[in-house]
């Protein structure tokens, strides 16, 4: 059981990392102005690779639907929060509410991702099977 | 034409997630290649679609349809069981992304 928790924690760390890389990727693509600025284009390509690698590591144990939603959610939160920092943008009250919903959903999914013992025995060939209970 | 580009972008985004799930942290070469190629094609098709679509609307459609498709195909192809808890969380996050995109700013 503790081995499972450890591998789950590592997967979630990878998923958060994939989201963070995605934010850098988006900023770099924006800065590359249609891949015409070489430095930002290179940063964009490197973080494109890092993002998908981290996502792939995370999806070893996290369900693909959960992984994708969290990844996209973190990317959207990052873009919204960093917009006012780097560009001349402001967040409205309504947008803060949407940000809150995304973050609450991510936390919810982290908690829902803990597979129960009953679920593991019902589940068919899955990674979770490797776990001794 | 922009709807076609958006549909292609969605299809490749779904392929990205499913391939990344198979790529085992990039140790499986075939699925790693599929992940990277479909990632590049999804980005390209989306950028084409967003030339015509309002960026917020186009991005919201893209993420939400891809997210639902990925979840359903993950259940169908990988046997990843869908529970109410997971479904509610996925809908909350994707709904939040859609709301954020549609409420201006980006």
UniProtKB/TrEMBL annotation, chain A:
<comment type="similarity">
    <text>Belongs to the drug/metabolite transporter (DMT) superfamily. Small multidrug resistance (SMR) (TC 2.A.7.1) family.</text>
</comment>
<keyword id="KW-0813">Transport</keyword>
<keyword id="KW-0472">Membrane</keyword>
<dbReference type="InterPro" id="IPR045324">
    <property type="entry name" value="Small_multidrug_res"/>
</dbReference>
<feature type="transmembrane region" description="Helical">
    <location>
        <begin position="12"/>
        <end position="31"/>
    </location>
</feature>
<dbReference type="Pfam" id="PF00893">
    <property type="entry name" value="Multi_Drug_Res"/>
</dbReference>
<dbReference type="InterPro" id="IPR000390">
    <property type="entry name" value="Small_drug/metabolite_transptr"/>
</dbReference>
<feature type="transmembrane region" description="Helical">
    <location>
        <begin position="37"/>
        <end position="59"/>
    </location>
</feature>
<protein>
    <submittedName>
        <fullName>Multidrug efflux SMR transporter</fullName>
    </submittedName>
</protein>
<feature type="transmembrane region" description="Helical">
    <location>
        <begin position="93"/>
        <end position="111"/>
    </location>
</feature>
<feature type="transmembrane region" description="Helical">
    <location>
        <begin position="66"/>
        <end position="87"/>
    </location>
</feature>
<keyword id="KW-0812">Transmembrane</keyword>
<keyword id="KW-1133">Transmembrane helix</keyword>
<keyword id="KW-1003">Cell membrane</keyword>
<dbReference type="InterPro" id="IPR037185">
    <property type="entry name" value="EmrE-like"/>
</dbReference>
From TrEMBL, chain B:
<keyword id="KW-0813">Transport</keyword>
<dbReference type="InterPro" id="IPR037185">
    <property type="entry name" value="EmrE-like"/>
</dbReference>
<keyword id="KW-1133">Transmembrane helix</keyword>
<feature type="transmembrane region" description="Helical">
    <location>
        <begin position="29"/>
        <end position="47"/>
    </location>
</feature>
<keyword id="KW-1003">Cell membrane</keyword>
<feature type="transmembrane region" description="Helical">
    <location>
        <begin position="59"/>
        <end position="78"/>
    </location>
</feature>
<dbReference type="InterPro" id="IPR045324">
    <property type="entry name" value="Small_multidrug_res"/>
</dbReference>
<keyword id="KW-0472">Membrane</keyword>
<protein>
    <submittedName>
        <fullName>SMR family transporter</fullName>
    </submittedName>
</protein>
<comment type="similarity">
    <text>Belongs to the drug/metabolite transporter (DMT) superfamily. Small multidrug resistance (SMR) (TC 2.A.7.1) family.</text>
</comment>
<keyword id="KW-0812">Transmembrane</keyword>
<dbReference type="Pfam" id="PF00893">
    <property type="entry name" value="Multi_Drug_Res"/>
</dbReference>
<feature type="transmembrane region" description="Helical">
    <location>
        <begin position="84"/>
        <end position="102"/>
    </location>
</feature>
<dbReference type="InterPro" id="IPR000390">
    <property type="entry name" value="Small_drug/metabolite_transptr"/>
</dbReference>
């Amino acid at each position: 059981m503790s081995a499972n928790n450890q591998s789950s924690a590592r997967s979630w760390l990878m998923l958060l990392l994939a989201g963070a890389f995605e934010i850098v990727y988006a900023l770099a693509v924006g800065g590359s102005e249609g891949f015409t600025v070489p430095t930002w284009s290179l940063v964009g390509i490197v973080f494109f690779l890092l993002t998908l690698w981290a996502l792939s590591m995370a999806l070893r144990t996290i369900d693909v639907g959960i992984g994708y939603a969290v990844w996209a959610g973190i990317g959207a939160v990052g873009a919204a929060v960093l917009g006012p920092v780097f560009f001349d943008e402001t967040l409205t009250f309504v947008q803060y509410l949407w940000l809150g919903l995304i973050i609450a959903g991510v936390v919810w999914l982290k908690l829902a991702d803990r597979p129960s013992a009953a679920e593991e025995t019902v589940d068919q060939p899955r990674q979770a099977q490797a776990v001794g209970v | 034409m922009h709807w076609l580009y958006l549909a292609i972008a969605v299809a490749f985004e779904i392929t990205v997630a499913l391939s990344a799930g198979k790529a085992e942290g990039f140790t499986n070469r075939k699925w790693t290649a599929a992940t990277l190629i479909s990632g590049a094609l999804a980005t390209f098709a989306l950028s084409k679609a967003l030339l015509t679509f309002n960026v917020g609307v186009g991005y919201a459609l893209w993420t939400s349809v891809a997210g639902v498709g990925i979840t359903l195909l993950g259940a169908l192809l990988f046997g990843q069981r869908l529970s109410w808890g997971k479904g509610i969380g996925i809908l909350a996050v994707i709904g939040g992304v859609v709301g954020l995109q549609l409420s201006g700013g980006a």
